[in-house]
Amino acid sequence: MTSSFHDTRWTLVSRSRGSDTQAAAALNELCEAYYAPVVAFLRRSGREDDAARELAHDFFAKLLAGGAMDGARPERGKFRSYLLGALKHFAADQRDKKRAEKRGGGVEHAEIDAEHEMADLAAESPDWAFDRQWALTVLARSLSRLEAEMTAEGKDAHFEALKPWLTTDSDSTPQATAAEKLGMSIEAVKVAIHRLRKRFRDSVKAEIGQTVSEAGSVREELDALMSALRK
pTM value? Predict the structure, then answer.
């Protein structure tokens, strides 16, 4: 990749520490992309859905308010890693505040904080939920990106007919059916599917590329994505 690779959303944020309009817009887009993984992490940590969504809103509001990205550095590479660390710190602070409130303003109680203990016993579970939802979100956003591109090219019918071969629905859709819909031979459909899959892979790489600071990290994140989907 050329040096233009570095003009990604993550590097815009990390270079400027989120202090200008361009960086703020980039950070906002990254937060939108990571909302679902953050909620998944909080839910797996033991919070109900509504509470997890409310806490996620508070987390991103703090992140977008400015100053929260002061510790961001391009050499840290992955926005995913930085965000997960920030989320854990935020969640721990919120848990400590909740525990302090339960103690009645500093009065110690002997009971065990069950939520804290469960999180300790299953420390990997919230991370797993975060990574898996991140992987699913990347695929969904990449699919939407590809659909928008093909619609702009006037190929929306091709996309709709061949989309099952980008998902798990291909077994229930005979290639002959797609060929009939598109007025193509089965061999031509096979070629079209191959090309569409390549475009989808490129779309996934482009989506991931917006969250890392080095071209080499894209391969690492692709490996992490595949690992998260296999678990």
Answer: 0.81
